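Notebook entry, cofactor series.
This is the third protein in the set we're modelling with a bound small molecule. For this one the ligand is pyridoxal-5'-phosphate. I'm keeping the input format identical across the series so the outputs can be compared line by line later. Sequence and SMILES below, as received.
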Amino acid sequence: MLTIPTRTAPPPRTPDTVPAEASDRRPTAVFDRRESAVRSYCRSLDAVLSSASGSLLRDESGAEWIDFLAGAGSLNYGHNHPVLRDALVDYIAGDGVAQGLDLHTAAKRDFLESLELIVLAPRGLDYRVQFTGPTGTNAVEAALKLARLVTGRSGVAAFTNAFHGASLGSLSVTGNSTMRMADLQPLSRVSRLAYDGYFGPDVDTSALIEKEFDDPSSGVDLPAAIIVEAVQGEGGLSAASIGWLRRIAELARRHGSLLIVDDIQAGCGRTGDFFSFEQAGIRPDLVVLSKSISGFGLPMSLLLISPEYDQWRPGQHNGTFRGNGHAFVTARAALEHFWSTPAFALDVARRARLARETLDDLADRIPGAQVKGRGLMVGIDVADPELAARIRVGCLHRGLLLETCGPRDEVVKLMPPLTTPDELLADGLRRLEAATERAIR
Ligand SMILES: Cc1ncc(COP(=O)(O)O)c(C=O)c1O
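Returned structure with ligand:
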């Protein structure tokens, strides 16, 4: 049994005072011994990562991977981008404020001004910004709560295969029953709507939803909000069509439900535009952003609110970490560096075409496979979870880190940093091709 040493006399670390398993010298031993069984991503990569730059990740032994996971979409601008890193180092060296309460700070002011000037004003959006707790699910919770406050309705509507986070409110609108721990959690007041294409290409699910909403005796109560991802990141890279998104937006408007777009994964340039809903020309009532908004992998999460719905009373939704000082600095640097001109979005679109060409070609060689996603949030649904897992493992062995997604993990998912140089992108795609060829043999 582990002996807990007293504080006053720290004992030498001898075999008597540390658990027997501590003699295990594997570099990952302490994770197995000490870290909760709940850990997940590390189970597919048995390495101890120690440095990273751009689209490359390295471990302690010097092994290197091309990173097509990008911190699950939180590193759209790659690892340690020098412009962001220098801004942060200067800020820290100058004793910049790092607290996370909603006190006014120069760093927050500069970020808000950049967001206003570079993102909101050019798109004709006049959202108010609420800084919520630090991670994506905190912004989703705030959005659901605000929609209920504004409409006085308690139910919300969410889509099949959606993923919105792991806290209870967000889980209630998530599809995946394992994530929801469906047998245990009493999560209610959610109507589940069929996402675009859920019943195949010939069924317009927006027409089905319209019918249910329009019919007062359909049994579907009008919701406070409809929450939707324009591209379902975890649910399998299903991308809603422009027409479908417009019809859902119109339906929400007509029935007094707030439209929440969850842009946590698909936002910040991942689909090509800053917001994933721009091509559809819709204006959601609420938008949630997180993951890559700080640009540097720092925790930051925000809710964009149409001004008429900013009906919070001061302090009504609170928290200690609601705006990380360091994240403001890197977020502002990212907006200014990447989004001040259209050049970056054009670059992303070009790289997305390169990826798509290879994936289309590859999908043709796999029976029943199809390419899914939009922009640089793309992948191949290989229709077989075991095949997808073999491809993922084969990629790892070839120095390419990526993940699978979808209801049964049957989609091989590519989320390279948007800044990945063309040659490295092509190199990663070649490794994927080799791993896939091998896996289908
Ligand atoms: C679309 C979407 N919403 C919400 C979340 C939850 O974000 P977080 O894991 O930061 O709480 C995620 C995370 O993957 C996501 O992809």
